[in-house]
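User: I'm writing a tutorial on reading structure tokens. Could you give me a worked example: one chain, its sequence, then its tokens, then a sentence or two explaining what the tokens reveal?
Assistant: Sure. Here is the example chain.
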Amino acid sequence: MADYRRRLEGLQAKMEDRELDLLVLGASPDFQYLTDSRVEWRRGRDLTYPADAVFVPRDGDPIILAGMGSAGKAKESWIKDVRGLGMFEDPAPAVKEIVMELAGEPGKVGVGEYTWSSLFMSLATACKGAKFRKAEGLLDDLRMIKEPEEIETLRKAATLTENVMTRIIDQIQEGDTMRGTGLKIETMGRMIGASDVSFPSTAGFCKSGSEETDEVFNYGREQGLEQGTSIAFDVGFVVDGYCSDWGRSFYYGKAHDHFKAAYVALQTAVVETIDAMGDTVTKTNEVFPKIEEVCDRMGYGDYLRERLASGMVGHQIGVEVHEDPWLKPDQNQELVDGMVFCVEPKLWMKGEFYLRVEDMVLIKNGKAESLTTYDRERFEL
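And here are its predicted structure tokens:
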């Protein structure tokens, strides 16, 4: 089991540094990370409850407040004090009681970004005279380094994703649509164990020999797949509360040698970069230059820069699909054990192909290990 007590103590140390007497986090990624509760936060606001929140004192154990539809999930948390509200019950009395128990008359109160305004109003009434502070990012440093249990869950999510995509890719046929393929991916993922998708699945088609445009995909979403088309997948699932993010590209039909060489260059850049992470590549801002170096050497650097002028080639992943730090020039975070990144370069030749590769990469023992292992040589379908 993950060390939730360590997470709480780390958070309370941050609160001490910022002189926060109380912290309130609505249903959110931080809420899940801190409480080990699957209270809904990924879906639309109409599927969450305004009262859902965890109240964290500078010292002592937190208290969870849960709307009627969330109380059952909240009680799965390691936090024992869970207080439920009825469907139309005013949260103000419960909020006031919790604030008094945990902080008395707090001087400074931090509020997380997912907290509903209606709950904040109750909080403001209960904390008259307090100064309120934004609390985004307080848990980022803790969430950045994954615990062994988190790593195994991410590995499980990666494996499920590749199991899904192996089946999907084997079934690709003429007439398939981008929309239909995306829906098939999401349905299959849920059928074999995913609870959700990390983001809407993408199966993007780019027909070779088409007019150049600023759109990477030149098919309509209901237009049937034809020979002579590159297919770029961007797929992610949620498994046990953690995300995957995966990408590969294929060519439907007989690919021009130039296109095949481009994909070899892209895969080579990913492999060589992963091999270098922890060795010659030691910071987040060094990943793009390494990928660029390999693509330049193989004659495809200009196609990389066409799509990635910003130099952004990935991000960390965990409870959320996109977590800090990002793999881009303005972030120079050192790569350390326990980080899990998604490395995702793309090559784009307008009107001819759009190719992407995305791998989940674990930093372990000073080196990098790819958690995604799908066949790097398979290209033509």
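What the tokens reveal: Residues 271 and 370 are 9 Å apart (CA to CA). The chain has a mean pLDDT of 96.
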